[in-house]
Design brief:
The structure holds two protein chains of two kinds. Chain A has six helices and no strands. Chain A is mainly α. By secondary structure, chain B is mostly helical. Classes of the chains: A mainly alpha, B mainly alpha.
Chain lengths: 138, 185
């Protein structure tokens, strides 16, 4: 067990910490709290913006309004993101269940799968509403 | 179909197989526009993911059965069977338990050996289930959730068809009304 002197020295040293200083370190640390990225602001990602733009054009091509087409594109993009995360977790669950991966991760990954369920529910509900709105406009 | 983008597949899963299901469903419901295609893609995904979850469940139960069989082979002895050396109980049982899962003939032999020691296949399965009860419960919930999503997608497609049917009915009624009013005038 650490002595009082050691504890106070550790605390003093901890106070000297200034966090990451390099650009790379700051970029990495900025993602420390990221679990799956599904709650992230998608407009900050260039690839998301371009995918959403393409999907918007698809909906627009079928005669839907710009506003609804864009909303539907965002929902579809988010749905795909959720499925990608589900897929990544699914592979880990399968490998753990199959004995190829660490068994300890099985319960944890099943919990993760359940925890992203709310994102999927939200998107499904939003998609339903947007599509109903779109059907009314045609 | 390509415009919908690549589906989120696992390593080793076939894109062609996924696309074949998607195309089959799209043709069966007569997908016309992007909304139909997205809805059918959702349905395909739910079917696909449900199948994955069932595969995981089967793999988990099998892995636990192997674990149980390995344990039983290690801890019990054949009364009238051949003498086995210590090496067998260290590494041989592991191989035998794994072979039980892949070689049906050998599997039957192991089943008979274990049955003779009082452990029939039903009790082995029950032990395997009890080893992963929590995980199975979570998987069953995930499977049930996926089924609910699939049903919701189906309802959406049906609702869309009903909507179209109503529009068709309304339009035809308008035409009939228009004809009568023209005839009356």
């Amino acid at each position: 067990m650490a002595s009082e002197k050691q504890i106070s020295a550790n605390r003093a040293n901890a106070l000297k910490g200034r966090g990451p200083r390099s650009v790379g370190g700051k970029a990495r640390a900025s993602k420390n709290a990221t679990r799956h990225g599904l709650a992230a602001i998608i407009w900050k990602q260039a690839s998301a913006v371009s995918s959403i733009e393409q999907l918007t054009q698809l909906f627009r091509a079928d005669g839907y309004s710009e506003q609804n087409a864009r909303l539907a594109a965002v929902v579809e993009y988010q749905t795909k993101s959720i499925r990608s995360v589900r897929s990544r977790i699914g592979v880990q669950i399968f490998e753990a269940a199959d004995g190829r991966g660490p068994v300890e991760t099985l319960a944890e990954n099943l919990r993760r799968l359940q925890s992203i369920d709310r994102y999927e529910k939200r998107m499904a509900s939003l998609k339903k509403r947007v599509f109903q709105e779109m059907q009314r406009e045609i | 179909m390509k415009l919908l983008g690549p589906p989120a597949l696992w390593r080793g899963e076939s894109r062609n197989q996924y696309d074949a299901i998607l195309l089959g469903m799209a043709i069966s419901v007569g997908a016309r526009d992007i909304i139909d295609w997205v809805s059918v893609n959702d349905l395909t995904y739910h079917v696909w993911d449900g199948r994955r979850l069932q595969t995981i469940k089967a793999a988990l139960i099998l892995a636990k059965q192997i674990e149980v069989i390995e344990g039983l082979l290690k801890s019990t002895y054949d009364q009238a069977g051949p003498e086995r050396d210590a090496i067998y109980y260290i590494s041989g049982v592991k191989n035998d338990a794994r072979r039980w899962a892949t070689d049906s003939e050998f599997g039957s032999e192991i089943d008979d050996r274990l049955a003779a020691r009082g452990h029939d296949s039903a009790s082995i399965l029950a032990r395997a289930y009890s080893l992963c009860a929590t995980e199975l419960q979570a998987l069953d919930k995930a499977i049930a959730d996926r089924e609910l999503r699939r049903m919701a997608s189906l309802r959406e497609i049906c609702r869309r068809d009903e909507f179209l049917a109503r529009r068709l009915e309304q339009t035809s009624q308008e035409i009939i009304d228009g004809e009568f009013s023209e005839a009356g005038a």
